[in-house]
Give the backbone structure.
Amino acid sequence: MKMSQLFTKTLREAPADEVAKNAQLLIRAGFVYKEMAGVYAYLPLGIRVIDKIKQIVREEMNAIDSNELVMTSLQRRDVWEKTGRWDEKTVDVWFKSALQDGTEVGFGWSHEEPIVEMMQQYIKSYKDLPVSLYQFQTKMRNELRAKSGIMRGREFVMKDMYSFHATKEDLEAYYNRSIDAYMQVFKRLGIGEDTYVTFASGGAFTKFSHEFQTICDAGEDIIYLHRGKNIAVNEEVLDDAVKELGISREELEPVKTAESGNIFNFGTQKTDEMGLYYTDRDGKRQSIYLGSYGIGITRAMGVIVEKFADDRGLVWPEAVAPFRVHMVSIGDVASEAQALYDELHAKGIEVLWDDRDERAGAKFADADLIGIPHRVVVSEKHIKEQVYEYKKRTETDAQILTHDQLFAML
């Protein structure tokens, strides 16, 4: 893509009312547009990052035999009333409205109840189990606080997965497979080393759950780590968890974190409440075990920004960067830059080409702000010498490389 084709422009300053670093940088670099607190539009560069994160998650969910679907955002009141979670005293983040005929509806903040309702049509016998389903969808939550940029949104993209099982043991086995899959996701996103499976409260979901907490100064949570035993506990359940896990509070180290994902074991509570059962080999009716698994896609994007950005701008890990190479042309080198651009594309390397009529300093500053992993400069001087200037975003000094050296580096 050529930067001259982007409708967005980089900004020197972020909106005055934006306090979160992740949103400030994403707005300035042209990845997102702020509609209101906690609500952001994702622009062409931002969409590319979101799609990269989605694809990593998709591959890992497919690897544990889950099927992708897309459910509805509009939610029926009667479905949620079956479990008591339509009541705003139980769930206080609902956005609700009414259809033209007066029917009251909600906008999906999660999908346990609707997917259990849907599976009434597809699960009848033991032969239909187990089954796992996931989706990528925009969720709506009427959050009281929305000051963390895209890390806590009122409207955000989430991957939610649900698994149905005939036995407690089968659910537990899949639950553990999901933990491994989630850790693989965070490893591929570049935040795996600082992400911990954390014992936490289930909140509006169930009594206890597991969170995936990433060490991050901009996070809103405090977890307590036992590094020797690789145990992490959310502050809100610390006393209960210490008893449950048989560890001493004095052994734990408090750290600030951001929640990157969560998983819940509902047992048979949700399916029993909603009347979803299966018939076993002997023709007897049995309860179904349910697991629920979430990753905030846009939140993960925000965590990555907070973790890696520096004083010059964004710094994207290669796996989620909108492009692999940021090519800057300086001077009368359009034909030579086009030739390199075409060659990079032919080799499957994604390129953002700054072909604008701007001074070199402005182009370099924008390259740092946008944060693409590799920068290549094509200039009149370098063309004469048959070399290119190359610099990694994470490094300060540039190198002068021949054509072959450049492609070996990329």
